[in-house]
Design a protein that fits this description.
The chain is of the alpha+beta class. It folds into two domains: 77 residues, no CATH class; 124 residues, 2-Layer Sandwich (Beta Polymerase, domain 2), CATH 3.30.460. It contains six helices and 13 strands. Strands 1, 2, 3, 4, 5, 6 and 7 form a seven-stranded antiparallel β-sheet that branches. A four-stranded mixed β-sheet has the order 8-9-11-10. The longest helix is centred in the middle third of the chain and has 14 residues.
């Protein structure tokens, strides 16, 4: 079963997970995001769901399915009944949501292939709320091109930059250990966020299939202060971010 970061899947129990890794040696590495709940705030396909935050998801699975809990959630492939692909879902969403259509047209019009784009998060599984953000995926090297296109679109007024209220919302959600002003300095230079028709969206990097290779687990070497030169940052927007150093 080929699944990668930003894909989602649903198990036989109706639980919906977000795939959180590229390689899955002992079950699909993921995080539980939604569970059926008659009092849930989201609805799709005639069924109501409750969204779980990180800690709630672990508590839920430790009770319901403890053998799936590790550093991430590891779901046996045979338990999966439905998968959600960001690239497959995008075409239908672009036809029904003018905000998504506008992002697609902006990127495609400047040379990003349609098949290199996708949509993830709540929109992918049909559980978005009226105020939901747009989690827009771009695959592989096309992501860097898309970021440059977004910068031009914001400078010429085709897309909007984030207002301070949206930045504060992001800051509070992230809960960083730095002040708001310092957070803004670091986040603005990344250039992967924008607003379309009043809705916040970000460009999320996901590896192309040919970029995916097993990543051996590293060995903790302890804390040290070094001087180094970054020689490759192709995966600096991946999850987790990876920088190759010369030191």
């Amino acid at each position: 079963m080929n699944l990668r970061i930003r894909d989602f899947f649903q198990t036989r129990q109706g639980w919906i997970f977000a795939v959180s890794d590229y390689c899955h040696p002992h079950g699909i590495r993921s995080l539980l995001r939604y569970v059926p709940d008659l009092k849930g705030e989201r609805e799709a396909g005639g069924r109501r769901y409750r969204k779980l935050d990180f800690d709630d998801a672990y508590r839920f699975l430790r009770i319901k399915q403890p053998d799936w809990v590790a550093d991430l959630h590891q779901v046996p492939p045979e338990e999966i009944e439905l998968t959600f692909s960001p690239s497959h879902a995008l075409l239908a969403l672009a036809q029904t949501d003018p905000r998504v259509k506008r992002i697609v047209q902006t990127l495609a019009g400047a040379g990003v292939p349609m098949q290199q784009m996708g949509i993830t998060g709540s929109m992918l599984v049909g559980l978005q709320a009226p105020g939901s953000d747009i989690d827009f995926v771009v695959y592989g090297p096309s992501w860097w091109k898309a970021r440059d296109i977004l910068a031009r679109a914001k400078s010429n007024g085709e897309m909007d930059d984030l207002d301070e209220a949206t930045w504060k919302k992001i800051y509070l959600k992230r809960k960083p250990e730095i002040g708001f002003e310092e957070f803004m300095i670091h986040e603005k230079r990344k250039g992967n966020r924008g607003m379309v028709e009043g809705t916040y969206f970000d460009l999320l990097f996901t590896r192309d299939w040919e970029q995916i290779q097993p990543q051996p687990r590293g060995r903790q070497a302890g804390a040290a202060q070094i001087e180094a030169r970054v020689v490759n940052a192709d995966f600096s927007f991946d999850s987790p971010a990876i920088y190759r150093l010369d030191h």
